[in-house]
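no rush on this but wanted to send it before i forget. theres a chain ive been looking at and ive put its sequence and its fold in token form underneath. i want to understand how the tokens follow from the sequence so walk me through it. thanks a lot i owe you, the record is right below:
>
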Amino acid sequence: MNGMSRPRAAGCVRVPENYIARIAFALFFAAASLLVAPSIAQERPNVGKLGQLTNQNTIYIVSGNPNGTYLRAAYDMTAVLDDEKDNTLRVLAVIGKGGGQNLRDVRFLKGVDLGITQSVLLNRFKRTNEIGPVDDKFVYIAKLFNEEMHLIVRAESGITSIEQLAGKTVNFSDIGSGTQLSTREIFERLKISVKEVNMGQADAFEALKKGEIAASILIAGKPTGSTRTIRSADGFRLLPVAYAKPLQDYFYPAVLTHEDYPTLIEPGQQIDTIAVGAVLFAYNWPKGSERYRRIETFVNAFFPKLAEFQKKPRHPKWMEANLAATLPGWNRHEAAEEWLQKNRPTVQTQPANPAERAQFNDFVATRQAASAFAPEDREKLFQEFLKWKTARERR
């Protein structure tokens, strides 16, 4: 106690060896410290100028678990944005349970100002009011990237479409995760009733092998570490998900390729699926407050360094980040909006050229629900196609 570390018996903690596990191991203790940080800071006398700066300029961001993309994105923020020389900013990443729980944590948990969630969940929580009114409690910083739906079945099951899961047992991933709540939204919209179970992906793959569940779902930015651990040779299969009309207001079309999952998808083949936008959001602290100042400091460090996030070894999903993208129905954090107004020209719709339009028409023709697109939906999809194409060409 009193600042002294307690001796640890040999062998009582085993430090993970792989990269993601090391991140998770370190951030586990960051999460634990978050719960007691305010009281510790108050009890420590004579911390000096360095201690004051450390506490004043640290901001917590709640992310996700090692199966998804949020943890890696948050870790990248710590690597790029931490100012170790002058202590003007420190980003402390916290392991979270995913998009749904992250909304609760930013709303209620002491010390947490930022989180990553899915756009569909922001709208779902606004609609359901399950944690109270949130319109004036949350603001978004930026749309980060898209997260693809991974629907995994056993090849021998004979299941070839998401509709055939009706009445069967399906893993919606961990309780409170973005996968769980977004998958509920998807199945509700498609009017497919299943028996939901909740477990991590590793446990789900074992349950699939034993025939205990019919499918497992993960919504995360490709390529995901857990999906890369399985092979078609072991009887696993990625199932396509059509971009159906009921999904087109909140979701986007996407594809999974051999390059993403070489042990699951044959060369030259692709699996159609859907995706949802991942959003960096914040608690809506009053302007002029200390907590507002911390978020403003974060924004002014993060926005100018987007190009740094798009370099190796950062996660490839950063190539999709569009700071200027808007989130309909939600207000952007005032500091973020001010930065954009000062540092960007007016954002305009990307112009089309005949070659791109022809390529897009071929793209749509391959979609299972191509005939369902109304003209306005087709134009929206075209703009998403241009963004996807630009991000892909920059990789």
